[in-house]
């Protein structure tokens, strides 16, 4: 698999690993210890519900009115019956959460992904995904006008997300950089193609990386 920026990527990856080891992981572990499980689920559900609006917008931009409608309906149900999104009632009644973002939208519009890129603090990405991430952040309703509040809310979201990944660490094996790179690329490929994935493996591994576009 092509990774022409591997030298740079590994340096940034090592930096991110140190930040995670000495800051993010300890904070996430402390958050999990002091936060009751029901409350932690409420926080995760609240952030997920806020994200339904940009998901719905991206679905429309990709020509997926059904997905857009489901996301909007999820937001309405969880914001009312689910008490402002604290409870994921929508999933309980069969409204499956949709996964759409600006990287997927740009891919549908024909923008090539470019090579694999590791960003400081943000981790795995690509030039297209970086542009998509910028748009995702800008479009997120969490961007309230009051800066101290905005920073506090985003910090809580980052910690909550990191706490949700603690159990998954046991799945990582071998070269952590390669594992994370391949896992991220496969996940993006899966999401961009709505779960329709062709077998791109042969006896030597990946045949090519054209599927990243």
The unreliable regions are: 200-213
Biggest sheet architecture: 2 strands, antiparallel
Strand order of the largest sheet: 1-2
Output the number of helix runs: 9
Distance, first to last CA: 14 Å
Radius of gyration over C-alpha positions, nearest whole angstrom: 18 Å
Based on secondary structure, the structural category is: mainly alpha
Q: What are the secondary-structure elements, in order, as H or E?
A: HHHHHHEEHHHEE
Shape, principal axes of CA atoms: globular
Multimer state: single chain
Q: How many β-strand stretches?
A: 4
Helicity range:
55-70%
Q: Report the mean per-residue pLDDT as an integer.
A: 89
Beta-strand percentage range:
under 5%
Description:
The protein contains nine helices and four strands. It starts with 5 loop residues before the first helix and ends in a 7-residue tail after the last strand. The chain has 213 residues and is mainly alpha-helical. The model is unreliable at 200-213 (pLDDT under 50). The protein has helices at 6-34, 37-50, 52-61, 65-80, 89-92, 102-108, 127-139, 147-164, 176-192, and strands spanning 117-119, 123-125, 201-202, 205-206.
In a nutshell, what does this entry contain?
The chain is 60% helix and 5% strand. With 213 residues, the protein is mostly helical.
């Amino acid at each position: 698999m092509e990774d022409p920026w591997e030298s740079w990527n590994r340096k940034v990856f090592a930096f991110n690993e140190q930040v995670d080891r000495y800051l993010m992981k300890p904070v996430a572990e402390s958050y999990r210890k002091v936060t009751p499980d029901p409350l932690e689920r409420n926080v995760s559900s609240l952030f997920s519900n806020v994200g339904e609006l940009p998901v719905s917008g991206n679905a429309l931009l990709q020509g997926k009115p059904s997905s857009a409608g489901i996301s909007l309906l999820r937001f309405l149900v969880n914001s009312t019956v689910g008490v402002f999104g604290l409870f994921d009632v929508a999933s309980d009644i069969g409204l499956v959460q949709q996964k759409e973002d600006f990287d997927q939208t740009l891919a549908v519009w024909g923008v090539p992904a470019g090579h694999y890129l590791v960003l400081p603090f943000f981790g795995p990405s690509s030039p297209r995904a970086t542009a998509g991430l910028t748009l995702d952040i800008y479009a997120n309703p969490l961007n309230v006008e009051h800066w101290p509040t905005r920073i506090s809310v985003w910090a809580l979201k980052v910690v909550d997300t990191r706490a949700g990944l603690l159990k998954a660490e046991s799945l990582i094996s071998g070269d952590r950089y390669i594992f994370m790179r391949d896992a991220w690329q496969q996940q993006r490929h899966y999401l961009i193609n709505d779960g329709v994935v062709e077998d791109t493996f042969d006896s030597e591994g990946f045949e090519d990386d054209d599927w990243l576009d």
